[in-house]
Predict the 3D structure of the following.
Amino acid sequence: MNKLSVNVGKTPLVQISKRIWAKFEGQNPSGSIKDRMASYILNDAEIKGLLKKGHTIIEATSGNSGIAFAFLGAERGYKVKIVMPCNMSEERKQMLKMYGAELIEVGAGDFDAAIKLRDEIASCKGYFNPRQFSNPLNIEAHYSGTGVEILHQHTEKIGAFVAGTGTGGTLMGTSRILKLYHPGMKTVAVEPAESPVMSGGELGPHGIQGIGDGSKFLVNLNEVDDIVIIKTEEAKDRARKLSKESGLFVGVSSGANVLGCEKLLEMYPDIEGNIITVLSDRGERYLSCM
Ligand code: PMP
């Protein structure tokens, strides 16, 4: 059967400015880059016989992974339970429910609590736990998906790959394969100024939903060449500008990523090659907070 999820990935690589290019991940079936990780992990579990129709999946998420699992669950006949901090956008919560998932909320910004509760419920009830914050398959999805696609779509030299990190799957998987073909390329993380934990700062509340979840998770800091810090308000402004001036209606973390590329070029104008990033999701799910 030709299910919608066969169309995950194969997203356009759009040019933002002379030297900046971005994968438009809002084109994925449930509207975000997280369809890649979720379908990759579920496909693997199905092949290994770990998941059968009627089983329940439980995951902790800032929203987009939950929406991705909820979409796939509805498509493939799994029940889906999502544990999420309560301060994520209303649109996210409504989308999860529209796909038929059950939402369990924990304290604002508390991803540790969400992960702990997910693990407790999964082991107590025997639910399938994709463990996106620690699962190497999350990295693999971007190594063999996002990264390979960029290599085919962009034939000029790549000087840096820039991405904000939630789980870190996008940054690690994509940059690892790009670096093999573009030696000397910089791997650059983006983090919220209000919660710069990878740069050694304090955890704090911020509004760049999807990144800066409080810990480095899958990110190996030895592979990160630079970290660019972006304020929530600057990220929102850049996202609005992308919509009005480039026709790219994207979410707040996409604004942070593009601004991260621009700041990187200001800091290192002599970087050889172009800068690649991702526009992680569409803007519709932020209307209530933009
Ligand atoms: N931006 C948004 C909007 C997201 O939902 C996520 C995933 N949490 C990311 C960026 C970061 O992706 P990753 O988990 O692969 O680091």
User: Anything to note?
Assistant: Residues 32, 34, 62, 64, 164-170, 210-211, 251, 253, 280-281 surround 4'-deoxy-4'-aminopyridoxal-5'-phosphate (CB under 6 Å).
